[in-house]
Fold each of these.
Amino acid sequence: MSTHTNASETTPNLAAPIMLPAKRINADWTMLPAWAPLPGLAALAVNSFLLKGKAPVLVDTGVAPLGDRYLDTLAREIEIKDIEWIWISHADHDHIGNLQMILDRAPKAKVVSQYMGVAKLGLLGFDMRRVQVLQPGAVFEAGDRRLHPVRPLYYDAPETTGFYDPKAELLFTVDCFGALLPRPVHMVEDAREADLHAGMMTWSSLDAPWLNRIDRSAMGRGLAAIERLAPKHVICTHLPVLAGNVTTLTRPIAEAYCNGNGAAKADPLWVESALAGLQGVAEMAA
Ligand SMILES: [Fe+2]
Ligand SMILES: [Fe+2]
């Protein structure tokens, strides 16, 4: 018998961003699940995550329209003033939406991000005295926890940094492995396989349109490394939690982008095709 509640039972028609109740992942990690409709497409998870412990870490901060609902959900899990770190995976709107509200309520909290993320937060007007650069190659320590920074296999901003938590055997992949889905679900296993594969293809082509021009063997080695790691959980901003075999996520990407099974969407704006089209127009006009 499944122990997972199907979120779609309570949210049949997603017309605006919604905040769902927090979901415990394991002894230390909790997901703060939100979903947003993408115009003309489907539902996209916009999760953030909380590591409870001696030095609590909030990983990303959700989307701004959820504001108070986001804070209420967070406050049911932790005294917000006790948060010590806010890990910003990258400075996209869907990851920093409630950052200032949390900083205002968590005076001890410091923000950590890679260099370009810190630079962007500066341009957005955040208080740089509360922001620290995550140095390349450094392991992030929060209390007795060590998070090993990992650059995801694909991403939409250069500072994007996920991590592996060896104690929890949990891998955070940020935007990588995200999927547009017909409706909110809590766990990857609650989604139909066909929906998951199609949703991963749509999301990956939107979020990383360069993916079908990557070095296939390098991508294959990266996917194999994740399979060898075999994390107990994969957490992703734009996907429900994966608690099963990681090949559920790695195989569709390998099939599409390493083996070229045709599932990957072509990029009509790729410079060769775009400029070839322009040349044709120019010749017709001549
Ligand atoms: Fe992003
Ligand atoms: Fe994102």
Amino acid sequence: MVISARKLSLIFCSVFCLAVSCQQESTPEEKTFLADEAPASCHENLPSRFTGTATPVPVKRGKVSHEGMVWIEGGTFYMGAADTEGRQDEYPLHQVKIDGFWMDATEVTNAQFASFVEATGYVTTAERAPDWEEIRKQLPPGTPKPDDSLLVAASLVFSPPLHTQSLQDARQWWTWTKGASWRHPQGPGSNLKGKEHHPVVHVSWDDAVAYATWAGKRLPTEAEWEFAARGGIENQPFPWGAEPVEKGKPKTNTWQGQFPIHNSNWDRHTGLASVSSYAPNAYGLYDMAGNVWEWCADWYDADYYSSLGEKVTHNPKGPASSNDPAEALVPKKVMRGGSFLCNDSYCKGYRTSARMKSSPDTGLEHTGFRCVASR
Ligand SMILES: [Ca+2]
Ligand SMILES: [Ca+2]
């Protein structure tokens, strides 16, 4: 991936800032935060990686199998937030027509991703150490080399702090961890034993596209993803309808308690859950809310819905380029559905219309994907 020198400068800055912030001591006072203090994103302004070696590894397109997939009959629906709970980028509500497609019933698992790696020898973005000689070619002459401790294969691991100073700064609970990758989700001391049916995590958008190509599939468009998540139930906030996430029976893997300090485990999973641990939506799709965020094919544009006007848009594929006013210089792809870290008092990312974004080279412990196929 070729990226601008400006972005690389930002990356250096943000990684250094992260390293510094991790060393700061928290104040002893725990604070309670109002919902309107919560940021628009539960992982905004985190460092992208050094992308000096992130040339996507070529993968040969495979032949699709519909095993484990569900046929989603197309149709016309209202996309976006139908209530007043949405963030600004979820409006206006607009009509979209979607052609029928196949969708994986579950998030891609570690076992499935392992088959892909075994067949192709693919090495994920998080497993590749950055090459300073490659990076420096894209930087202004004289740019100093960052500390060697930062030029390592690494990914972002969730590390609950003892205290938080503000929910505005996600760097308090994300740690840039050397050796963390899909094989080692919590860092070098962790492994996949007993987690074969957990969703694969620490996969970048590039990794997800590589897997989809090998499987003869593709990533869903953002519109396909939302149409599928709604399961034919119009204008409801969740894939199951309107019942609040923490009422009734546990319906999905999210976070209950005071995020990010205390998890009450009401839904029986403090970390990731095996895929299909909870009931599917009306289309037979599991974990369309919670467990892991899921990469979509589209670039993120905060104003994309406004740009579509009042007509019915047929199979929208997203904007031509990224537009995130919060981090204008970092191109970002869409992610959907929320994760095991989403909380009712915080990001509420499991709302069906909720939009999230991250740079294509970013891997996180709560981010995975599922694939679709047109035929
Ligand atoms: Ca949970
Ligand atoms: Ca999910």
